[in-house]
Amino acid sequence: SLDGLSVFRNTGLERVKPLEEDIEFMVKEYNLQRPEVGKPGLDYADEIRRLGKEESIPEFMCHYYNFYFAHTAGGRMIGKQMSALLLDKKTLEFYKVGLQLRQFHHFDHQTTQLTFSAVGR
How far apart are CA 36 and CA 23, in angstroms? Predict the structure, then answer.
């Protein structure tokens, strides 16, 4: 059930608020006009909502783990390099993961249990 997905709420991996802060920073710092969300972004959001509504747990978990590992490992390295090259070493909020390392073990255990139970049904 979707109640089983509650473990994925308020994990510290949420990116909406940090992304909003970074967009505001770039708009003000570089005198840019904020762009509208494009079709690919809207389509992506619709697809994630569809997975939730249809209770497509295995598909959601596949997406979640790709997202989770991308933003907690490779994404942080890319963000650090981008910061050094383009932003006078300012670290964007998007790349600051709120989940502390000591919390990963417990969080990973919970998500692994949910994944196995979802795939096994």
Answer: 11
Is residue 31 over pLDDT 90?
yes
Alpha-carbon distances, residue 96 vs 13, 62, 69 (angstroms): 9, 23, 14
Encoding tokens for residue 103? 């919390």
Give the residue from 63, 42, 41 showing the smallest Cα distance to 52.
63
Structure token digits, residue 42: 């809207």
CB 19 within 8 A of CB 89: no
What's the chain's average pLDDT?
78
**Rounded CA separation 72/5 (Å):** 20
What is the H or E stretch that residue 26 is in? helix 16-29
Element (H, E) at 77: helix 75-86
* pTM, to two decimals: 0.70
